[in-house]
Amino acid sequence: MTSKLTFPTGFLWGAATASYQIEGGWNEDGKGESIWDRFSHTPDKVKNGDTGDVACDHYHRWPEDIALMKTLGLQSYRFSIAWPRILPTGRGTVNPAGLDFYSRLVDGLLDAGITPFVTLYHWDLPQALQDEGGWEVRSTAEAFVEYTEAISRRLGDRVKNWITHNEPAVVAFVGNWIGEHAPGKKDLDAALKISHHLLLSHGWAVPVIRQNSPGAEVGITLNINYTQPASLSPADYTAYRVGDGLWTRWFADPVFGRGYPLDVLTSGKKFGLIQDDQMPYVLPGDLDAIAVPTDFIGLNYYNRGLARADVPDNAPQTVFQAPKDPDHWTEMDWEIYPDGLFNILMRLHVEYQAPKIYVTENGASYSTPPNDEGRVPDQRRLNYLRSHFAAAHKAIECGVPLSGYFVWSLMDNFEWAFGYAQRFGIVWVDFETQQRTPKDSALWYKQVITDNGF
Ligand code: IFM
Q1: The CATH number of the domain where 146 resides is what?
Q2: Are strands 304-307 and 357-361 parallel, antiparallel or unpaired?
Q3: Using one digit for the tens of pLDDT, what is the confidence trace for 48-65?
Q4: Domain assignment present for 246
Q5: Range of 81's domain?
């Protein structure tokens, strides 16, 4: 017999999205071009030539989407602001229509009794800033503060939960080392510099938000998947340390006041991944700025990876591989591993002593379509969510200060380099008609929220 798992009173249940992935309206009402507009408009960058030009048309359909969230019983909604809607060229002249759009959205959410969680940067950098060097130059971090000032001044009276950055590791590494995301660069030395400017902009933005949004809670979201050495061999352990160092410690350590883990530079140079193991761009005071205490840490968790040294080119960047077993993999080719969520939550609690944690993303990609009755029987997504909720519950029982959970994603959307070929939504979107249909997982989730458990 399985017993009921009940979450703590006040535990916040929500769903998450990001501006470029759902909004559309890419050049409307004064919005500037973003690096994702440019990237998706460039041939061969995104699967099937898909773009976010229309996406879920949320820019026009937001009232309907808020009504949908209300129907599903969501208590909270995490969304991001498109920087080029607010400052079309990244800095300077503010676009009032952009501010108005998000102000109406926030009012609509509050009217529906849904708590907004606002992410400032979920990857759509103004192209004008990229043209000046993007995150590789320090002035972009300064522009981020200007943008933070403009948006937090406008929304700060009503929005009380802010996230500066979403997944800086993905921004730095997938966009600038692996090159599969905008701006499509392939240079780890540049990516490390970029990571510093991202973190610096976080550190500088936190006090600005606090100033403009009295009583607000502010955090940053890191993507931390669970990695292990693939075997007991010292070589695999080294590959694990390099991978964990780059993808996790490089971001978590400075945010939690420990500075950069310098073993990453040493081993990165040894493996020929980086040329330069000095960091002249880290100026006096930067590490203190990055270590600004936050109210919470956001965790995006999806899967497990096994670190192997025996990859063809012996390059530890390809560590995130695991043996395939179709029953335990989602359509992203990501291994389903709920214990990994428990382990990472424990790590944030024990190793980093995070004061408060939200799971700001967790979910699975399955393309299960509507059946003849119009239902979407996405049992595998439901199973995925149930097993991860149970892992989160176990972590809470072990003392982890987990305060809420945002399912990724509210609805099917533009999945970056995969375009519309991957569907993470708990709501089905027909991209021809823009019709939304809650999947079985959404109906189940509604009951979880009502019962505060399952
Ligand atoms: O869709 C993304 C999201 O934008 C960031 N985290 C991972 C999700 C699934 O790939």
Answers
A1: 3.20.20.80
A2: unpaired
A3: 999 999 999 999 999 999
A4: no
A5: 12-226+293-313+330-451
Residue nearest to atom 2 of ligand 1 (CA): 415
Give the Å distances, CA to CA, from 321 to 87, 313, 316, 381: 40, 14, 11, 22
Could you confirm whether 167 is annotated as catalytic? yes
Determine which residue's CA is closest to atom 10 belonging to ligand 1.
415
Q: Which atom of ligand 1 is nearest to the CA of 18?
A: 4
Angstrom distance (rounded) from CA 106 to CA 152: 12
Tokens 């129907």 belong to residue: 71
Catalytic member of 136, 167, 217, 415 = 167
Q: Give the integer Cα–Cα distance in Å for 454 and 449.
A: 9
In this structure, the residue with its CA closest to atom 9 of ligand 1 is: 415
- Domains in the chain: how many in total? 1
pLDDT at 45 over 50: yes
Active site residue 361: yes
The CA 376 to ligand 1 mean position distance, Å, reads 22
Residue 308 belongs to some domain of the structure? yes
| 284-305 pLDDT tens trace | 999 999 999 999 999 999 999 8
Report yes or no on 105 lying in a domain.
yes
For the CA of 122, the closest atom of ligand 1 is: 4
Q: Which residue of the set 23, 33, 217, 361 is catalytic?
A: 361
C-alpha distances out from residue 293 to 12, 204, 213, 353, Å: 22, 12, 16, 12
Query: Per-residue pLDDT averaged across 101-105, rounded?
Result: 99
State in Å: Cα 235 to ligand 1 middle: 31
Assess if residue 277 is contained within a domain: no
